[in-house]
Amino acid sequence: MIGRDEQTDQLEALQEEVEQLRRALGSHALVDQAIGVVITVGGLRPEQGWEVLRHISQHTNIKLREVARGLVEWPTRRRLPEAIRGSLPAALEHARTQAEAADRGDEREVRCGLPD
């Protein structure tokens, strides 16, 4: 039989897990919306939209969900955070280059982004 303290601990652990899952679900929806913004603005495919978000996050040291939030709020705020705005053109170009390399079957460029 489980003691009262053990039940309380289990309940608290389950409540924390539920909260983490709720946050993850919200972040996932936000990222999906940001991908929609990027593919609309950049004329890209969905997988390229994901690459743009990832590239911006890695090159600005901004968490991916915060990059996504900035992009999703861009139309209503009528401004894009400076770091994201500065990184967006390079990220779009990077995604296009990667996709072109993949279409050509040039695995070296797809793997590292730069020719040997």
TrEMBL record:
Keywords: Coiled coil. The keyword Cell inner membrane does not apply. The keyword Phosphoprotein does not apply. It comes from the Bacteria. InterPro entries: ANTAR, ANTAR_transcrpt_antiterm_reg, CheY-like_superfamily, WH-like_DNA-bd_sf. Residues 4-31 form a coiled coil. Pfam families: ANTAR. Residues 93-116 have a biased composition (Basic and acidic residues). SUPFAM superfamilies: CheY-like. Residues 11-72 form the ANTAR domain. Residues 91-116 are annotated as: Disordered. This is ANTAR domain-containing protein.
